[in-house]
Structures are given as structure tokens and as C-alpha cells.
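Next up, a chain.

===
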Amino acid sequence: MASKASGKAGEGILETIKTVVYALLIAGVFRTLFFQPFWIPSGSMKDTLLIGDFLFVNKMAYGYSRYSCPFSICPITGRLLASEPDRGDVVVFRHPANGSDFIKRLIGLPGDTIQMKAGRLHINGQPVAVEDAGTFEEVKAPQGPQRISPRCANDPVGEGGICIKERQIETLPEGTRHSILNIGDGWADDTPVFTVPAGNYFFMGDNRDNSQDSRFALATGGVGMVPAEYLIGRADRIMFSSAGTSLFYIWTWRSDRLFKAVE
């Protein structure tokens, strides 16, 4: 009797292990081929994306590369089933130097020239249309697990005060309209002309004065030009958003951002 009981117990453990392995394999395939979860860790894409927004990245949008797999283990050279991204897409990509995943807006396509003049974006020598859209306001307080305190156009602002940034609507040449924020004057408001090489892309954050993006070289901690194979996918929709330090603190979820489209 004891041997039969132990045998059944062993079979039960084996079945449990097999179930867990199958579940992990299915989750891995889903994450590799279809959608990858992404939690916004910084304020570089405000107010389009806020710290604590949780979204799924559409990995089918641009095809697949070695960076489509966890730990970059896919045995792929270049891209399979490749599709060209559109200017204005909000894209998750692998940082070409440090291996972390970044999310920014695609501004420059291969062959484009990009320049900032007095805080105004110029594409191929032409200023991009902007219109004033009031201000973006938030509480000056540490945000997210990293406890990042926002920068404000009206600094110095004490903790608990209202942090204000100027807000504009920018319209890209193909018609994509999106919000951008401005904090103050800085080097990134006046740049040299960048020419996007073939097979590369130029990215910027919507929070223009608080984003390490393609305006900054890799050697200085920026993103530089991003080769096509480093693209992971397109951010289409926010699933939910937490204003607290953890996604599991349901009472801190922002109800107005549930299933919100990324524009």
C-alpha cells in the first residue's frame, strides 16, 4: 500500500512539473512572437506615457530579430517578416550599448535630417508644426519604484506642490499629432544637424527636456542612432496604470488610463 501511495505521489509531482514547464513554454512563445509586457519606469514620455503605465508591446508590428527573444537568444540575423515602422510610432527597442529596453517616439527615418532649433523640431530642413495646449500639471513628489521626482518649469517647487510643464501639440509631416512637454532651455533645444543613416532610426522622448534619446550620443549615455534590428515592437495601448510603487497596489491604479490608446 505504501509503495502504491508513494507512486501516486510521485506521479502527481511529475504532472505538476510538466504543467509548469508547459505553461512557461507557452508564455515564452507568446512573449517572443506576439506581445511583451512593459512597465514605464521613467518620465521621458510624459504626458503620453506616465511612470507606472503598464502596456503590452506589439511584437508583430515590425517583424522579428534576435532581440525579440528574452536575453537576445533568437538565432536570427537581421529581421524576419520585417515591416517598416511609421514616423510617430511609439516604439520599444533594445538600447544599442547597455542592453536595456527603451521606449521613445520614432522621429527620424533613414535618410532624414533632424535638428532642434530654439526648442523646435526640424525634419529635412522644415520646422514641424506646433500649437500651444496649455500646461501639464502633476504633484511634485517621488514617483514609481525608483522614486523619481519630476522636473518642473516652475522650479523650485517644494514637495507636495504643483509641478508645471508647458504643453504643446506637435504635428509630424505625415499627420501624426501628439503631445510634447517643455521644461526650459537646454543643449538639446539647439543641436547640430543629424543625418539618419540607412537602416537606422532617430528617436526622441515626448518630455523633450527630460529624455536621453537620439539627440545624445551613446558615449554620453544617450541612444544615438538605433539600427533596425534593435526594434522590439510598437506600443499600442495602455492596459492599466499604477501611481504607486508597485503594480500590485490596485488602490493606486489610475482608472482614466485603463485600456487607453497610445497616440
